[in-house]
Amino acid sequence: MTIEESRAMFPILKDYTYFNTARFCAVPTTVATLQQRYLQSLSLHGSWEFSEWSEKYELTRQLSADMMGSTADQVFFIPNVSTGINLSSLYLPKGRKVVLLDKDFPSVVLPWRSHGFEIESCDYKAANLYEELEAILSQGNKILCMSWVQSADGFEIDLDRIYDLCKRHDAILVLDGTQGFGAIPFKVDPDLSMVFLTSAFKWLLAGYGVALGYVSEDLMPHFKAFQGWNSIDFGTGHAKTGAASLEVGNAMFFNVLSLYEGLSLINEVGMEVIYKKNTTYRTSLINALQNAGHTVDLAEGTRSTIFRVEVPDGKYEELAAAKVQTSKQRGKLRLSPHFYNNEADIDRLIAALN
C-alpha cells in the first residue's frame, strides 16, 4: 500500500485539516471496523470467537517486538505509559538514584518522586546536556528515566549517545517512546538494562486504552511484585517467565486488537517509507510557514515532526473554527503531522493562518 492510498483510510481527513497527532492520532477505518466487529462478536456470540481474538492478541505482541527489535517474550501490554512508569518505580532497585530531565512529561517524573527515590535532574535544553548526564551517571548506581521525544516542542534525545552512556556507567534506562515510536525508526539495545514504554494512541494509530512495554532480560527478575491468574501458562500450569506475566488479569482484547490493526497498517506502508515521508513533509511544511512570514520553533537536531509556531492570540480558535486541528503549547501553536498529511493540508493551514 502506498502512502497516497493509505490516506483514504482516515475518514477525519475528509472534514478536517489534521495536524494534531502528538495529541491523538487520526484513526484508520481498519481500527474502527475491528472495534465494532469485536463488540458485535461479544454481543452476538459471547466468548465463542475467543480463540481468534487470542491468536491476534499474540500476533500483536510479535508485531510489536519486530518493530522494536526485541523478542516477543520481552513485550507486555498495559493500559498506559503512566502505569508502566509506576510499575518501574515499584519494581526497580530502591538503592539507585533517579536521573530525570527538567520539564519532562509529568507521567515520566511523578512516580519516582511519589515512591521515595532520590532525584537528580538536567535541563534537556542545555547545550552540554550529554556532558551533564555523563557527569551524573559516572557516579554509578543510577536509573535514567526520560522521554525519547518531548511532546511540547519535539526535542529528540540522541539515543545512540544515551545507550552508550548507560552501558558505560552501568545505568538502567527507562524510556518513554510515546512521541516517537511509529514515526521514527527505533530499536531497543539488547545489551542494555532497559525498560521501554510507549502509548498507542498517537503515532501507532490505535486509539486509547493500551500501551506497549519492553523489559530487558536482566531486569525481568525484578518485575515480580504483581501476580494474578493470567500470570499462569494454562498449557503447562506453570508461572509465565516472560514479560507477559506482567499482564496479571483479563486480556485487553478491545485495545490490543486495535493496536494490531494500527501496527499492521504501519507495516503495510513501511516504517522506513513513513519516516522518509515525515521527514520530507516536515521540511515542506516549515518552508511554507516561513515563506508566509511565520516564526517556527523547531528543536535543533530532532527528527520529530513535532514543532511550534508563533501566532497571535486567538489564532488557535480561528483555526479550530476553520476545521484545522492543532494544539496549544506554552503560548504557541503546536503542529504534529504524520504520514497521512498531504500538500493540500499545507495549503489549507497557510490560508487559515493568513
Care to describe what's here?
The chain has helices spanning 3-6, 12-15, 29-45, 50-68, 81-91, 106-114, 129-137, 159-168, 253-269, 271-291, 315-321, 343-353; strands spanning 17-18, 75-78, 97-102, 119-123, 142-147, 172-176, 194-199, 211-215, 296-297, 307-309, 324-325, 327-329, 332-335. The longest helix has 21 residues, at 271-291. A 7-stranded mixed β-sheet has the order 2-8-7-6-5-3-4, sandwiched between helices. It has 354 residues and is of the alpha/beta class. It is built from 12 helices and 13 strands. The model has no long low-confidence stretch (mean pLDDT 94).
**Helix segment tally:** 12
Which residues sit in consecutive blocks of at least 5 with pLDDT less than 50? none
What is the string of SSEs from the N terminus onward? HHEHHEHEHEHEHEEEHHEEHEEEH
The level of helicity is 25-40%
Helix-and-strand structural type: alpha/beta
Main sheet characteristics:
7 strands, mixed
Report strand order across the widest sheet: 2-8-7-6-5-3-4
In percent, how much strand structure appears in the residues? 5-15%
Radius of gyration from the CA trace? 21 Å
Number of strands: 13
Mean pLDDT value: 94
Head-to-tail CA distance between termini: 35 Å
Shape, please?
A: globular
